[in-house]
Write a structure and sequence with these properties.
single chain, 447 residues, alpha/beta, Rossmann fold, Dihydrodipicolinate Reductase, domain 2, four-stranded mixed β-sheet, 27% helix
C-alpha cells in the first residue's frame, strides 16, 4: 500500500530524519466501501522519515471530506504524476474537440502547435490530460469508450483527429434533471438528444466514480439552461474534493455562496461560461475596449449568432436563455466606457440553422460617435467552428486548475476565470486578464 509517495511538490516521503510539519491534503488508495479502493482525503502531518501516510480508520464514503490546509499534496490512485486526471460532464461537441485535441497535440513540437495560447502550463502539455471518467445521458454514448462516444450523433463538429485511441474509460450514465429541454424531442434524432433508459446515477454513485477514478478536475459541458444539473455536479465536485472548471452559463463560480464553499474546502474553481479562443464575445469585447481607449462613444450594438449544433437547438427554448444572455451581455458591458441602456445592446443567440452544424456565424454591428460628434459604425461577420474554438481555452483552464491544486490554492482562480470565462466574479479587460494569467502561471500571482 505504501511504497514511496510522490508528492506534487516534487519530493518523496522517504528515509530522512526531518519532518514537514505543515498540514497537507493527501489522496491515496485504501480499502473502503464494499471492499473497493477509494481515494481518501485526510488531514495528515507529513513526516519525512516515515514510510506511510497516517490514515483515518473510518470506512464509509460519507466520511471522506476535504480539509483546508496550508499546503497541498495530491496522490492519485495508481497511474503517473505526469498526467492530469480529468472527468467530463456532457460528451457533446465541446468534449469531442477537447478529447481530439489531447491526442492531436501529442506528437507536436512547440513550433508545430498551432492554436494554443500556452504550450506548457506548470510543466504540463496538452497531451498530459487524461480522461478518467465521463458522464452523459444519450443512449448513443452511455456505455461506450470515450474515444467512440465523441464521434456519435448528435455531435457534428469538425473531426480534426480521427485516430483517438481507445481510453479504456466508458461513459457513465449521468443524472438528467433539467439537462434535456422538452422541445428537443420534436426534432430529428440525428440532431437531438436521445435520453437513455438506463437508471440514472445518484450523487453518491457519481462521487464514487470521481473518487475511485482518481479524478482531479471535473469539467462541465452541460447544455445551456441546465441550472439544476449544473449545481448537482458542482455538489458532486465538492463532495469528491475535485477542482471544477465550469464552462457553461450557470453561475457557480460567480455565486459567492458556492465559491466560499469551494474555498473552505481548498478546492480550485474556474468559471463561469467559457470564452472562445476567437469567438463572438472576445471579438465584441476587444472592439468595445478599443472604442473606450480611443475615445469613441459606443451608443448602440448588437451581436446576432446562428448555428446548427445541439447548443443552438437547445436555445430555441427562450426560457433557458436567461443566464446565457446575462453572461454574454455583461461580458461586453463590463469593458464599455459607459454602460449602455438595455434597449441599446442586444447580445445573444438568434436562430438555429441545421445545415450550419457546428459552424457558428456572428453578425456584429457597433454604432458610435467620433471627434466632433461625427457618427460611425462597424459591421462584422465572423464564421468559426464553435467547439474547437472553446477547446483551445478549456485545455488551458484545466491546466491552471491543476497548477492551483499542486500549489495548495483553493477557491476562485480569478486570473484564469477573468481570461478564460465570460462571466467571472471579477471582470477586467482581456489584456489585463492575460497579464494576470501569465503571472499566475509563473508563480508570481496566487490566484
Amino acid at each position: 500500500m505504501h511504497p514511496k509517495y510522490l508528492l506534487s511538490r516534487g519530493f518523496f516521503l522517504c528515509s530522512r530524519k526531518r519532518s514537514v510539519f505543515s498540514v497537507y491534503r493527501a489522496t491515496f488508495g485504501r480499502s473502503g466501501l464494499h471492499g473497493k479502493r477509494f481515494a481518501g482525503i485526510y488531514r495528515v502531518r507529513a513526516t519525512v522519515g516515515c514510510d506511510k501516510i497516517p490514515s483515518d480508520p473510518r470506512r464509509s464514503l460519507e466520511d471522506v471530506r476535504l480539509i483546508g490546509a496550508e499546503g497541498s499534496i495530491r496522490l492519485p490512485v495508481g497511474g503517473s504524476m505526469s498526467s492530469i486526471k480529468v472527468a467530463i460532464v456532457g460528451m457533446g461537441n465541446c468534449a469531442s474537440s477537447l478529447v481530439q485535441g489531447i491526442e492531436y497535440y501529442k506528437n507536436r513540437t512547440p513550433e508545430e502547435a498551432i492554436g494554443l495560447m500556452n504550450w506548457e502550463i506548470g510543466g504540463f502539455r496538452p497531451s498530459d490530460l487524461e480522461v478518467v471518467a465521463a458522464f452523459d445521458v444519450d443512449v448513443r454514448k452511455v456505455g461506450k469508450d470515450v474515444a467512440e462516444a465523441i464521434y456519435e450523433s448528435p455531435n457534428c463538429t469538425t473531426v480534426f483527429c480521427d485516430n483517438v485511441p481507445k481510453t479504456g474509460v466508458r461513459v457513465s450514465m449521468g443524472c438528467t434533471l433539467d439537462g434535456v429541454a422538452a422541445h428537443m424531442a420534436d426534432y430529428d434524432e440525428r440532431r437531438t438528444f436521445l435520453p437513455s433508459d438506463d437508471p440514472e446515477s445518484t450523487q453518491r454513485e457519481i462521487v464514487e466514480t470521481l473518487v475511485q477514478s482518481g479524478t482531479e478536475i471535473l469539467i462541465s459541458y452541460l447544455p445551456v439552461g441546465s441550472e439544476e444539473a449544473a449545481r448537482f455536479y458542482a455538489e458532486c465536485a465538492l463532495e469528491a474534493g475535485v477542482a471544477l472548471v465550469n464552462c457553461m452559463p450557470v453561475f457557480i463560480v460567480s455565486d459567492p455562496a458556492f465559491a466560499s464553499r469551494f474555498e473552505e474546502r481548498g478546492i480550485p474553481i474556474v468559471g463561469d461560461d467559457i470564452k472562445a479562443q476567437l469567438g463572438a464575445t472576445i471579438t465584441h469585447r476587444t472592439l468595445t475596449d478599443l472604442f473606450a481607449k480611443r475615445g469613441v462613444k459606443l451608443e448602440r450594438t448588437y451581436q446576432l449568432n446562428t448555428g446548427g449544433n445541439t447548443d443552438f437547438l437547445n436555445m430555441l427554448n427562450r426560457d433557458r436563455l436567461a443566464s446565457k444572455k446575462e453572461s454574454k451581455t455583461e461580458a461586453v458591458q463590463s469593458v464599455a466606457l459607459e454602460r449602455m441602456d438595455d434597449d441599446n445592446i442586444h447580445v445573444g443567440p438568434s436562430d438555429y440553422v441545421p445545415w450550419q452544424n457546428d459552424n457558428k456565424v456572428c453578425f456584429l454591428r457597433m454604432e458610435g460617435k467620433l471627434f466632433g460628434d461625427v457618427p460611425m459604425n462597424i459591421e462584422l461577420r465572423l464564421s468559426v467552428e464553435d467547439s474547437p474554438n472553446s477547446a483551445g481555452v478549456s485545455i488551458d483552464a484545466i491546466r491552471c486548475a491543476k497548477v492551483a491544486l499542486d500549489r495548495g490554492v483553493g477557491g476562485i482562480l480569478h486570473s484564469a476565470s477573468s481570461y478564460f470565462m465570460k462571466h467571472p466574479p471579477e471582470q477586467t479587460t482581456d489584456d489585463i486578464a492575460y497579464q494576470h494569467v501569465q503571472e499566475f502561471i509563473a508563480g508570481e500571482r496566487e490566484r
